[in-house]
Specification:
This protein is an alpha/beta fold. It contains 14 helices and nine strands. Strands 1, 2, 3, 4, 5, 6, 7, 8 and 9 form a nine-stranded mixed β-sheet that branches. β1 (34-39), α2 (47-62) and β2 (67-72) form a beta-alpha-beta unit. It is globular, with a radius of gyration of 21 Å. The N and C termini lie far apart (49 Å).
């Protein structure tokens, strides 16, 4: 039933855009302006959402009003998969995703970017997205109808909030941890001896409260925004995933734009990413202070010890078989800027 609803929704948008269209160069809004719609799951007030509104402002300012941008936070434009269905139908829509999502959309090797401690520093992440390896992955996605516009957005370090303290990797043994429902993050916790438990994020507060899970991991802004610290009082700064996120659209829409408007989307997306990254850095400092003020014990862990405890992940047969031979070596070179 939900899939049928999505099909009808896409058809509705296609018909609506057809009626508004005034020829080539992108879909047209009233007055001949090019209409772009950006949908995301994040809520108003989160750094990512503030970054998107800055992106919208830059697009409209630098296009001198020739492009109009509508922002839809809180999944108001639909789920990620629904928005992608719109993209593939040619709609002028944009959303965001990480490497784990792109792994299932035509670029399997991109899944490695959310492996445990894959990035030791943010500089490694920026080297990677400027590399030939990254460009090859973008081309694979383009073959599937998806065009990455801005891959330089920080989504944040993922840390761990638990019902009992985690100070060393061995403290994870037997602990039920909520994780997203993907094999990379599930196996990344299993190598620590934890019991990963996939759950929708909206179910986690009650699950923590009732002991269904013992902990949850996410960037600081998400952990605080979901109020998980009301029922879990130990925050281990594990930084086990440095998560970058990429904004993307459909190749049908992107290729319909003039070269000038294509470059405008790419450049403003990059500049808004820099703005977002400054917001994220400031928000992390402020959020940590709020956690401490509200009675959470913040635990500084030995990151090299945790990193060493997770490296077996990369040799698991069920993980390594998903990726190209030599991927670890290839991405290590790219992260080093070679």
């Amino acid at each position: 039933m939900k899939r049928l609803f999505t099909v009808f929704l896409v058809l509705f948008f296609v018909l609506a855009v057809t009626n508004l269209s005034a020829g080539g160069g992108g879909q047209q809004a009233a007055g001949g302006r090019i209409l772009v719609q950006i949908g995301l799951e994040n809520h108003p007030g989160e750094p990512t959402t503030d970054g998107v509104y800055e992106w919208a402002r830059l697009i409209e300012e630098r296009s001198r009003g020739a492009m109009e941008v509508q922002v839809f936070p809180s999944s108001q434009l639909g789920t990620k998969n629904e928005i992608i269905d719109m993209m593939l139908a040619g709609m002028p829509v944009i959303t965001l995703a990480d490497g784990g999502f792109f792994q299932e959309r035509g670029a399997p090797d991109m899944g490695i970017t959310i492996g445990p401690y894959f990035f030791a520093t943010w500089d490694e992440a920026w080297n990677l997205i400027r590399s030939d390896w990254w460009a090859s992955q973008e081309r694979l996605l383009e073959q599937r109808g998806l065009k990455i516009l801005a891959p330089n957005w920080v989504y944040g370090d993922r840390h761990t909030l638990t019902n009992r303290p985690v100070r060393v990797p061995e403290d994870f043994r037997g602990m039920k941890l909520r994780v997203p429902n993907n094999i990379i993050q599930i196996k990344g916790k299993e190598v620590l001896g934890a019991s990963p438990t996939p759950l929708p994020l909206g179910d986690v507060y009650t699950a923590l409260q009732q002991g269904v899970v013992d902990g949850v991991e996410n960037p600081l802004s998400v952990l605080y925004g979901q109020k998980f610290h009301e029922v879990s009082k130990f925050l281990a700064l594990t930084a086990h995933i440095r998560m970058i996120t990429s904004w993307f659209t459909g190749t049908i829409f992107f290729n319909s734009l003039s070269p000038e408007n294509q470059n405008l989307l790419l450049q403003t997306g990059h500049d808004a990413g820099e703005y977002n990254n400054r917001l994220m850095e400031r928000a992390d400092v402020e959020t940590l202070a709020r956690f401490r003020a509200e009675g959470v014990e913040v635990i500084e862990v030995d990151i090299p010890r945790f990193r060493a405890a997770t490296q077996a992940f990369y040799t698991l047969p069920e993980i390594s078989s998903m990726w190209s031979p030599g991927i670890v070596e290839a991405t290590n070179r790219a992260k080093a800027g070679r």
